[in-house]
Design a protein that fits this description.
CATH topology of the largest domain: TIM Barrel
Mean pLDDT: 91
Radius of gyration: 21 Å
Strand content: 5-15%
Largest sheet: 6 strands, parallel
Shape: globular
CATH architecture of the largest domain: Alpha-Beta Barrel
Structural class: alpha/beta
Number of helices: 15
Number of strands: 9
CATH class of the largest domain: Alpha Beta
């Protein structure tokens, strides 16, 4: 609780959603809030990246109200209508055993998402298999679930798995993650896997086959996490537009996970969409001193690295309190990115490649979140800042999901043509 108070005190009310035009703070008025709420209620809001754990949709992690950034209750509270729940598998050894384990891990997460929508809460959320499904389910008053795969490692070398995952509902695949795989070079090679700066020089020959089969099946090609060369290859080879499911702009934050202007222009020419990501470290790159101080703090209090951004399991109550207080103090000295910083990335992309090629994502429960959009219940704050900056309802509709649905429908159209032999 003290951390929530410190965060919101640091933001300072109007400063939370400040900046209009040239970045000058603007007061929050009742009229602005009312207009933003009317728009937020009217548009279909889609977040293209929400991670889930392996024990999702079990008594340990209830999708309704677990202690997570995305739950059904928080989606409803914040007006987040749809989310892509992510089948993620960390890159591991490229062996028959590794591929089998990756496949089994993926199927476990598919099962969890289906269990959520078909057994646990079918009256509140439904799984979408098509772009039309998204709009139909939303019109029915339910939340919408969709599925994305993060890391093509889960197919190993078996192209036939693509059809199996598509049947289970996968509608995009991030070709690689941290570390190179058989499909593509990663934007973040891993020394522990023996990665050099590049392995394939972009997409591999097998990767080109993967993209072609994804086009045929109707799975969106996702260029987030892969190297710039691989992304440009994918845009060149794909018969359908691609997406960057959770990336921001390199021009505003010099991070390997962000897309530079050349890549963004190629994405525009491909007809694709960049789903700007509210991952604080990609929105605003912190000075190295913060990382050094955080490492010292973790060492001092026995922090154990785990699957989430902060893992406190095994720490004493005293160490946990001291650690959290230390992190709060770091946040005050080195402020995290906020909603205004995040929307700066949207502004840059819109100015460079046009309103039709930009969207929104969070990477919640995978490290995502900025001050003011720290969980799904705060989703309205993004719309409020967009209204503050002068975006119209139609433009906000495109950013919040219209552009993604356009790409999804084009991917479906291309798949139908390829399956018909055209």
């Amino acid at each position: 609780m003290h951390r929530w108070i410190l965060r919101h005190a640091a933001l300072g009310g109007a400063a939370l959603l400040a900046s209009c035009g040239g970045g000058e703070p603007a007061p929050r008025t009742d009229d602005l809030d009312a207009r933003a709420r009317a728009i937020h209620d009217a548009v279909l809001t889609i977040d293209t990246h929400a991670d889930i754990p392996y024990d999702f949709a079990t008594p340990a992690v209830d999708p309704l109200d677990a202690d997570r950034q995305v739950t059904l209750e928080k989606m409803e509270a914040g007006g987040l209508d749809a989310a892509f729940f992510i089948v993620y598998k960390r890159q591991d050894a490229r062996t028959s055993e590794g591929y089998r384990a990756a496949r089994d891990s993926a199927l476990m997460k598919f099962d969890a998402i289906h269990r959520t929508t078909e057994e646990m809460y079918p009256e509140r959320i439904e799984l979408a298999y098509t772009a039309d499904d998204v709009e139909r389910i939303h019109a029915s008053g339910k939340l919408v679930a969709a599925i994305g795969i993060e890391n093509g490692y889960v197919i190993g070398r078996d192209l036939a798995l693509l059809a199996r995952y598509h049947e289970l509902g996968a509608r995009y695949i991030t070709l690689a993650h941290g570390g190179h795989n058989d499909i593509a070079d990663s934007s973040t090679p891993r020394d522990d896997l023996g990665d050099g700066p590049a392995e394939h020089g972009g997409l591999s020959d097998f990767g080109e086959q993967v993209v072609a089969e994804m086009n045929r099946l109707g799975i969106m090609v996702d260029v987030s996490h892969i190297s710039k060369e691989a992304a440009l290859d994918a845009m060149r080879i794909s018969r359908a537009p691609v997406i960057a499911s959770h990336s921001s702009t390199h021009a505003l934050a010099d991070h390997a996970r962000n897309l530079d202007d050349e890549a963004l222009l190629a994405l525009r020419d491909n007809g694709g969409v960049m789903q700007t990501v509210a991952f604080a470290g990609y929105v605003k790159v912190q000075p190295p001193e913060r990382a050094e101080e955080l490492a010292d703090l973790r060492y001092m209090h026995g922090f154990v690295e785990g699957p989430g951004p902060d893992t406190l399991v095994g720490m004493s109550a005293q160490d946990q309190f001291a650690y959290e207080r230390g992190v709060d103090m770091l946040d005050l000295r080195y402020p995290r990115a906020n909603v205004s910083d995040f929307v700066d990335h949207i502004d840059h992309a819109v100015q460079l490649i046009g309103i039709d090629h930009v969207g929104i994502s969070s990477d919640f429960d995978g490290g995502g979140g900025v001050h003011g959009w720290d969980d799904a219940s705060e989703t309205f704050n993004i719309t409020l800042e967009l209204v503050r900056r002068g975006y119209s309802e139609e433009e906000i509709r495109k950013l919040w999901g219209g552009n993604l649905l356009r790409v999804w429908r084009e991917v479906e159209r291309v798949a139908a043509e390829l399956q018909a032999g055209r």
